[in-house]
Amino acid sequence: MADESGQEKTEDPTPKRLREAREKGDVPRSRELGAAVLLLAAAASALLFGETAARLMADMMVGNFRLERDALFDPAMMFAHLGRSLFDALLGMTGFFLLVLLAAVIGPIALGGWNFSGQALQPKGSRINPLSGLKRMFSLKALVELVKALAKFLLVGAGAVLVLGLIQQQLLALGASDVLLAMRDAVHIVSWSFLVISATLILIAVIDVPFQLYDYSKKLKMTLQEVKDELKNTEGKPEVKGRIRQLQREIAQRQMMTRVPEADVVITNPTHYAVALKYDPESGRAPVVLAKGADFVALKIRELAIEHEVPLLSAPPLARALYRHTELEEEIPAGLFKAVAQVLAYVYQLREARRRAGDAQPLRDQDLDIPDDLRFDGEE
């Protein structure tokens, strides 16, 4: 089967396609399964409650034929008697009705499950369109329905003939039996006959259920292009996702830049990388990365640091390691604690020396203790 684009529908329906179909009320259903369940439940009900119902009906009939003459001419007594008779009749049939009602609910939803769709209730012009009706009449599904109808007729007919042949003598014997005994036996015979004849529909249901599942899956099959389009619409087109990521990066950078003035020191490469750190001795936490960036972003971080008089320290190995192994608003790795502590100590010494108009001992890269596993040469 192919769609209008000429592509074959070879792909199984996606979960989204199945979900949309259910929302439209399109779920696999088997009328044969529902009919078989309903008839078998009715036959089982007749076997379970038929004898009790027959006895109550017999008692009701006997009571109705034994009415006194005065009751026949008293409307009030007749209405009261009618009410009692109806109550007895309903009482005798309650079990039968409840079991059949349960089967009538379970049977239709046994395949496809419970599903309520407001869209399925909306009127559709295609349902009254003569051309659409003709198309349905001469479709493969219509042919299958015709075959099923013929098969049901043959199976049920054959079952009925077989059952009648087997119970022929029992039916003839009912005429010579007592009325009450004949009623009980008749209910028993009819119930078993009904059950056997209804059981023939199981074969139709066993064939129809797989066909309905196959037909449903085939109807919802998709072309490869449809699957690709749905994936794009679900996850987003690559260009849209790229634009979203770009906007997210820009927003994150703007937020990051507002934190640079709060930093205690900005460690640079000196040109390619820049990492802004803040240390709060009272919190007991390790230094936190407020901002980091490479190339143009690193340049903006350095400009903001200079503008707000945040100390800049050129330590290329440490700057590269921090850039590679840290995340924004997170503490630095434990392996870099010592090196960063050396930098902060130097910054504090530098501030103290400036306050006293003196000079601080310069900090050399070789003095920084950076583990080998955290070193980063700037190339992936």
Automatic annotation (TrEMBL):
GO terms for biological process: bacterial-type flagellum assembly; protein secretion. Keywords: Bacterial flagellum biogenesis, Bacterial flagellum protein export, Cell membrane, Cell projection, Cilium, Flagellum, Membrane, Protein transport, Transmembrane, Transmembrane helix, Transport. Residues 1-27, 358-380 are annotated as: Disordered. The keyword Transmembrane applies. GO terms for cellular component: plasma membrane. Pfam families: Bac_export_2 (PF01312). Coiled coil: none annotated. It is found in: Cell membrane. The chain crosses the membrane at residues 33-50, 96-117, 146-167, 187-211. InterPro entries: FlhB, T3SS_substrate_exporter, T3SS_substrate_exporter_C. It is a multi-pass membrane protein. It comes from the Bacteria. The keyword Cytoplasm does not apply. Gene3D superfamilies: 6.10.250.2080, secretion proteins EscU. Belongs to the type III secretion exporter family. Required for formation of the rod structure in the basal body of the flagellar apparatus. Together with FliI and FliH, may constitute the export apparatus of flagellin. This is Flagellar biosynthetic protein FlhB. It comes from Marinobacterium nitratireducens.
